[in-house]
Write a structure and sequence with these properties.
Oligomer: single chain
Number of strands: 0
Shape: elongated
Helix content: over 70%
Number of helices: 11
Radius of gyration: 21 Å
Structural class: mainly alpha
Length: about 200
């Protein structure tokens, strides 16, 4: 039908426009523009979702020294996002480069690999070291994981007071899982005096 034909023409024009923009940004050498467009291709926001293009843009950004691009490229290799083959060694290398540039998410994701023994030997001491570094850079998820380490006694003496301290730090930065855990600890009286009404405040 004529209507369908017009839609096809429009979508082809849109795709053409997106491809031109993609080629142009790739050549600019502007790390911020490259990263912004990579995020769009990864999420499908304003463009047709395309993980291959997102990956190519992150690679370019990483070459330019963008630690956010290194981290996101690491996530792609870590998770096999968009059907891209999982490569844990590559993911670890990218997280490490991002971490060396003091990127909190790169540090956090590197810590997670040691915490879970993913692509590396499980090492709670190393995980804690990296989580602490990410926490110093105000990464709330890292704060929650430090709390988990003390709560469960992973490679450290179990310490509910320290766990609560870290959950509160994460909660103050609006980490929803930390907030839930604070409520649970007030309810059960772990690391604090049991206080069910206070649990509801969190």
């Amino acid at each position: 039908s004529k209507k369908t034909a017009n839609n096809n023409i429009n979508s082809n024009k849109q795709l053409e426009k997106e491809n031109k923009e993609y080629e142009k940004v790739l050549k600019t050498g502007n790390a911020y523009e490259i990263y912004s467009l990579a995020l769009k291709y990864e999420s499908g926001e304003g463009v047709k979702q395309d993980y291959v293009k997102a990956k190519a843009l992150y690679e370019k950004g990483a070459e330019l020294g963008d630690t956010d691009a290194m981290n996101n490229l690491g996530v792609i290799y870590n998770t096999g996002l968009g059907g891209i083959p999982v490569d844990l060694e590559k993911a670890r290398e990218l997280y490490k480069k991002s971490a060396d540039g003091m990127n909190p998410l790169g540090i956090f994701n590197l810590a997670l690999m040691y915490y879970n023994g993913e692509g590396v030997e499980e090492d709670n001491a190393k995980a804690l070291e990296y989580f602490n570094l990410a926490a110093e850079l105000k990464c709330p998820s890292a704060m929650r994981y430090i709390g988990n380490i003390y709560y469960n006694g992973y490679g450290v003496t179990k310490d509910y007071v320290k766990a609560m301290y870290w959950y509160i730090n994460g909660g103050e930065l609006n980490d929803s899982e930390s907030i839930f855990l604070i409520g649970s600890m007030y309810y059960e009286g772990l690391g604090v005096e049991a206080n069910p009404p206070k649990a509801k405040e969190w």
